[in-house]
């Protein structure tokens, strides 16, 4: 077959008088794409002419495209049949070229262009998905640039011939797609709305790195999309890297579920990192109250301090915001994570994205000194990091020691059934896990994951901690959901137990000390001596509490008649 460059445009007499044909842009087995001029509207247009053998493709595309109206989706302007009977669709002409051409010219793109492209295409996908349509062929060739009179070019999604209804795709009646950008489930003829998000993640990787995550033959790329997690370590800034990680999740059930959710998460990272460097932390008086204007109540809170200046973490679904409580409307940092943070020190934390666990030093320049502890944690379910070691689970549990000469992960089994297991790494490299049918057994393992000891407890384990000598465990009674107990466990010693009195809420353990609220406003703590101490009485009903790693400060999120507020307390019972 000759190249489409060698073809002359079809005879203009075949087209309605309204359209003048100027040149051929492309040709495939099913259609020809022509550049034309609409004399009625005085604009250039794209005319896609379907060959007689592609009648079904025309009907599918006109059904998908004709009623669409969105600034980031190519407009379908008209449809007609040529004098020879060939069906045609008229589209907006976008003169800025394609994203594929831009990538070929520039290699990787700057952050601003990358973010603008992701926002535009996510907005377009959200629109299509609301109409119950999947694009099915997201790739750089199908993203065009529309120059603007002022400001940067806009990005527009094209090639609506690949679009299909969700039901049609799920019934296996649609097989279009490009191997380099196709979602893993698509290879197995399974379709979801967020299959488009995986394809966009591949494009985002390409914009950030100047190359695709997987290269090779079609077979090699297909296998990599099914099983391999690409290295993201070269992508900056951190927020973009974490966002791409969320898009490239292999399991569609674990991936971001919608374009709207992905766009909302992307917008959360659009804060200037220099805010951290220019932030002026101010002393906060004890028992100070800060009124918070929050759109929603956070799922959890965390507390840190830098030389006595407190910082508060507000955990929401999918991300956590770090704020100076004196200036809560100016976020210092955001971590895109579906998991709770792990507090490693007063100004040190770890957080997980779908394929990595990262350690952050809050005192470092820019607010973050990231250490890629382990990559390719595909389908992460639970994890714990400490002392250059990592335990995580997906289908199995794995133990990774970065300091080993041959740092290969050790796989081991945990007899856990209905409930999420708790896991903790001790300073000597030993591991503690909660196991059993009701998560009521604690198992102590050596650094090679061999079981050394186990304890059967009278309750479901909800928190584990360690104080360099003993294991502190918080359990909830299996028969009475209002009864909590603290346990002190040590090798070669029988377990010791303390049953907590009163109506307990918001109980947790950090660095060998448990904190809880009793009877709505009473704040208490207890270490492995199992001798509880009163800290203070809260000014109002507590919704959430958090403590710093050194137990010096406690922050409570409370609610009164005027709304939400936070109060900072100094722990008079530092243990």
Q: Count the beta strands.
A: 37
Q: What CATH architecture label of the domain at 99-266 applies?
A: Orthogonal Bundle
* CATH fold descriptor of the domain at 99-266: Transferase(Phosphotransferase), domain 1
Could you say which structural class the secondary elements and strand pairing correspond to?
alpha+beta
First and last CA, distance = 81 Å
Helix content: 10-25%
- The percentage of residues in β strands lies in 35-45%
Number of helices: 10
Provide the CATH superfamily of the domain at 99-266: Transferase(Phosphotransferase) domain 1
Radius of gyration: 29 Å
In this structure, how is the largest beta sheet organized? Answer: 5 strands, antiparallel
* Unreliable segments of 5+ consecutive residues: 272-278
Shape: elongated
Task: Name the average pLDDT.
Answer: 85
Given this structure, which CATH class of the domain at 99-266 is correct?
A: Mainly Alpha
The spatial strand order of the largest sheet comes to 1-2-3-5-4
